[in-house]
Amino acid sequence: MSKVQIKEESDIVKARSVAKEMARDLGFGLVDQTRISTAVSELARNIFAYAGEGEVYIETDWDHRKGIRITFTDQGPGIEDIDLALQDGFSTAGSMGKGLPGAKRLMDRLNIQTKPGEGTRIIIEKWLDK
Amino acid sequence: MINPNSIPILKLKEFLIVSIQTDLHDRMAEQLQHDILRRVSETSAKGVLIDISALEMVDSFIGRTLADTARMASILDAEIVIVGMKPAVAITLVELGLSLGEVRTALNLDEGYEMLQKSLALTDMEGEETSEEALAEEASDDDSRD
Description:
The complex is a heterodimer of chains A (about 130) and B (about 150). Chain A is of the alpha+beta class. Chain A has a single domain (about 1-125), classed as Histidine kinase-like ATPase, C-terminal domain (Heat Shock Protein 90, 2-Layer Sandwich), CATH 3.30.565.10. Chain A has helices at about 10-25, 30-50, 80-85, 100-105; strands spanning about 1-5, 55-60, 65-75, 110-115, 120-125. The two termini of chain A are about 20 Å apart. The radius of gyration of chain B is 19 Å and the shape is globular. The interface between A and B is medium-sized, with 26 and 21 residues.
């Protein structure tokens, strides 16, 4: 497992390269490695853009599942309406609104826990044993 | 002093060539956009080739910055062609739901260069045709053009 603190913009690059390396070492093919690093880039940027700082936690073993699982945690403003946030093109940061729905499409699972005013935890998974 | 965020932009005849050889972070992408537009305006370049063959991923921010740069350059009368995108990157871009808009793409630098030359030749020809037509209209007093 590996942990990357998101405090500045270059940490987004760090998070996605660490995730990509771990995915490669685990045996994911090139396209999946790219999907994973892209999803990590989107969600780590969300931390930076909305919460200012937070943490990305990457693990490769959980519940006897083979794959990669990445948890994004922040103490930011939280997400008011998850369904809306998962819609393509919705954004409150002036971006394109592709991050959350895009990350969901790129991964096998995306789970959001959030409380307005308290923060957000997003878990994404990609499985090798589908 | 060399700006650590800046990516070299080379001029070759009427075109500019940019090769992104590093993992782009957001500020770097913005700096590149700025630099390309400035160089287009300084050199009156007619086309810009951006080689992204070393980019291992293009996320929504980089994608949007590239698409925006292409639109802005086109207002400055320069066409941008993105070359060398990795297949895995293309797959991921589409799944992410990102379209690069009207940005032209080519498989490699050679094809991108040909693309730019063709469209430049086309523009020149159109220009000539228009002026020839205009001359022809001026020269003839009758309406025998059918």
